[in-house]
Write a structure and sequence with these properties.
single chain; about 725 residues; alpha+beta; Alkaline Phosphatase, subunit A; 8-stranded mixed β-sheet; 5-stranded antiparallel β-sheet; 17 helices; about 30% helix; globular
């Protein structure tokens, strides 16, 4: 028996118990998941103590059972361990370029000793869709994730596609106080069973770190830390704060921009926290802080609560704890980083979104609940926000490229520590970890690879020209360290969910639909504000929402549908697809769209009715425009993309395959992300469930070529 395998879960629980035993029961979370504030704090403490004592008392019996179950589980396995190193968005064309230039020696070594192929992505080619397929081995119509956003068929508004968070429905009113009498609902909307649950049912342990679309975490035999769609303390997907004595310019889409006044050497301000759902009207809670500027030393002393710390310009603080007083003795806690951008002539301060505190997570962000606490106690505090790298702060030019890179690599280093901790402790089973820097940095720096990119206007084009190359070199070093943990019976796979291309021009499908008579505005309106506010649904046949989807306004499905299902539906789809497929960009003198996919023809799963009716495959250089994504309608169909977000993958999936590296040669040369889950099951001798759409990439034993043992049946 591997001794570390049994110790790891016990250590996670024991460390978490110690953390919770000395924490205040009054610290909690208000906002989405407000019930955890009042009911969760005490229950978490109580249950964690019971788990810790139970773990200690039952350890001898559990140890014997592990020996028995492990031997039984792995008798038909071809491997001791599978390592999946996920590098979100790593592009095969760029990988080949840098390998040919000798800059990625570990990737080259892996390709020569094993294999390197393009990895077919999903339709559409988006992270939440593709990583859900990675987990489950099924196409989107079986796992129910089709985009970052979905539409509410009653209101036509967008909703988060993967998670449904709703407050407690019962409230006790006591004067101004509002006391929830039940816990909120936090529900994962991804369907189908992830491969680690199937393995866990066979007593095969998995450590699943920051794989997208795992929030809230599911129970299985192993540990997991959630990623994409974990909210911040305000309940959003990431709201930064920016304080300045200067002029605030431009529209604020995501962040909070606050004008402040400097009095002598002092600036006073307040961090805006979550709404206080314990009080009538739900006023926002605030945490005051003070900044003392030392012009001679070129530094600022920031005091927040009982903590003080000093920063030089453009330097990030450590993670700082922030508390908001909700009343009734309840405090709301989170963590954030500060970065003083400029001291003079204007004061400028950037604060990251308020992350849930992993030391005291009042929302479930890991399985078991105590695993997040274990990581924080052993490795230090870390980003918990699903989309932690602040791309929107760079888009709005609150921060610049250098500050963004610093932030991205700080988060990346946190992830590395978690990954190698898991590799050290989980010596048999699965270790899978997804790193996000590869995606976020390519989104924001792709313009540097195209001197004519519209997003270059008014921005630096030289200083960070090598940022993407440096990114790939850093990932090569990460791979080198990972290879040191590959044993004789370990299969290592390095995968990405999709590749990358530049994003020069945005297409507003809603404006196109308006011009062609498929979408109508209310009388007197020439355009519509965000989220279709001025659309006349009683005269609208189709609309676009999200980054690649178009929906018909179908009778019996949408609240105000006018298109009859059946023949009229099919004819309208064919008509729109035929016309839209001929859309040309006159400025660039080329087609903007290469393929339009009818979801009902390419998917047959039970959730296909939730999928957009048409999925748009944009040509390289194009994507849904920013206005289109949020339901804005005007007279512009195609326009330049001038945001720093200059690279993307939400195009025709055939143009953006991911990467597949493996230390063993596979059977065939056309792997799909669909195939990863069934391949891992096969490697452990577990039969592939018939509902899976993928197939194993190995026909036999990847190590000796012999015929595989008969796989264990799936109940």
């Amino acid at each position: 028996m591997n001794p570390t395998r049994g110790k790891a879960p016990r250590l996670f629980l024991l460390a978490a118990w110690i953390a919770l035993a000395f924490s205040s029961q009054a610290e909690a979370y208000i906002g989405p998941g407000a019930g955890f504030a009042l009911l969760g704090s005490f229950l978490v403490l109580f249950i964690s103590i019971l788990l810790a004592f139970g773990t200690i008392l039952l350890w001898p019996i559990r140890a014997l059972l592990r020996i028995f179950h492990k031997r039984r589980a792995l008798t038909k396995s071809h491997v001791d361990r599978v390592i999946v190193l996920g590098l979100d968005g790593l592009d095969p064309a760029l990988a080949r370029k840098f390998m040919a230039e000798g800059k990625l020696p570990h990737f080259q070594q892996l390709a020569e000793q094993g294999c390197f192929h393009d990895l077919e992505t999903t339709i559409p080619s988006m992270s939440p869709v593709a990583w859900s397929t990675f987990q489950t081995g099924v196409d989107p119509s079986k796992h129910n994730i089709f985009d970052f956003l979905a539409r509410d068929v009653k209101s036509y508004l967008s909703v988060l596609s993967s998670t449904d968070i709703r407050p407690s429905g019962r409230v006790l009113k006591l004067g101004k106080w509002r006391i929830p009498l039940g816990k909120p609902r936090i529900k994962l909307l991804r369907r189908a069973v992830p491969f680690w649950k199937i393995l866990g049912d066979r007593r095969i342990f998995s450590a699943i770190l920051r794989v997208p679309i795992t929030f809230p975490p599911e129970k299985f035999s192993g540990v997991s830390l959630s990623a994409m769609c974990v909210p911040d303390l305000r309940g959003t997907q990431g709201t930064f704060s920016y304080f300045t004595t200067g002029k605030i310019e431009g529209e604020t889409i995501v962040g909070v921009k606050v004008p402040v006044t400097r009095q002598g050497d002092t600036v006073r301000a307040e961090l805006v926290g979550p709404p206080n759902s314990l009080v009538a009207g739900e006023p926002e809670m605030k945490a005051p802080f003070t900044v003392k500027i030392d012009a001679a030393r070129q530094e600022a002393r920031i005091t927040l609560g009982g903590a003080s710390f000093t920063l030089k310009p453009r330097q990030f603080s450590d993670w700082i704890k922030v508390e908001f007083k909700a009343g009734l003795g309840i405090k709301v806690g989170g963590i954030c980083r500060f970065c003083v951008i400029e001291l003079e002539p204007e004061f400028k301060l950037y604060v990251t979104p308020l992350n849930l505190d992993p030391n005291k997570p009042a929302m479930p962000i890991s399985h078991p609940f105590t695993y997040a606490i274990y990581l924080a106690k052993k490795l230090g505090p870390y980003a918990t926000l699903g989309l932690a790298e602040d791309t929107w702060a760079l888009n709005e030019r609150v921060i610049d490229e250098e500050i963004f890179l610093t932030q991205a690599y700080l988060i990346h280093e946190e992830r590395e520590r978690m990954f190698f901790d898991a590799l050290d402790k989980v010596r048999s089973g699965v270790v899978a970890c997804v790193f996000d820097a590869t995606d976020r940095i390519q989104h924001m720096f792709m313009r540097y690879l195209d001197p004519t990119h519209p997003a270059n206007r008014g921005k630096d084009v030289l200083k960070h020209k090598g940022a993407i190359e440096d990114l790939y070199v850093r990932m090569d070093r990460l791979l080198g360290r990972t290879l040191e943990h590959v044993g004789a019976k370990t299969v290592l796979m390095v995968i990405s969910d999709h590749g990358f291309k530049n994003f020069r021009r945005g297409v507003n499908l809603n404006s196109w639909l308006l011009q062609h008579g498929y979408l109508a505005l209310k009388e007197g309106c020439a355009k519509s504000r965000d989220w279709f506010q001025d659309v006349d649904w009683k005269r609208t046949k189709a609309f676009a929402l999200g980054l690649s989807g178009m929906y018909l306004n179908l009778k019996g499905r949408e609240a105000k549908g006018i298109v009859a299902p059946g023949a009229e539906e099919a004819a309208l789809k064919a008509e729109i697809a035929g016309k839209l497929g001929q859309l040309r960009d006159e400025q660039e003198e080329r087609a903007a769209i290469t393929e339009i996919y009818d979801a009902r023809k390419i998917m047959k799963g039970p959730y296909v009715t939730n999928c957009p009716d048409l999925l748009i495959g944009y040509a390289i250089g194009y994507r849904a425009s920013w206005d289109c994504a949020v339901g804005k309608v005007d007279g512009t169909i195609i326009e330049d993309n001038v945001k720093s977000w200059s690279g993307d993958h939400c195009i025709d999936p055939r143009q953006v395959p991911g990467v597949f590296f493996c230390n063993r040669k596979i059977d065939g040369d056309a792997p799909r992300i669909l195939d990863i889950a069934p391949t891992i099951l096969h490697l452990f001798g577990v039969a592939i469930p018939p509902h899976m759409d993928g197939a194993s990439l190995f026909r036999g034993d990847p190590f000796d070529g012999r015929a595989p043992a008969r796989p264990e049946a799936v109940a």
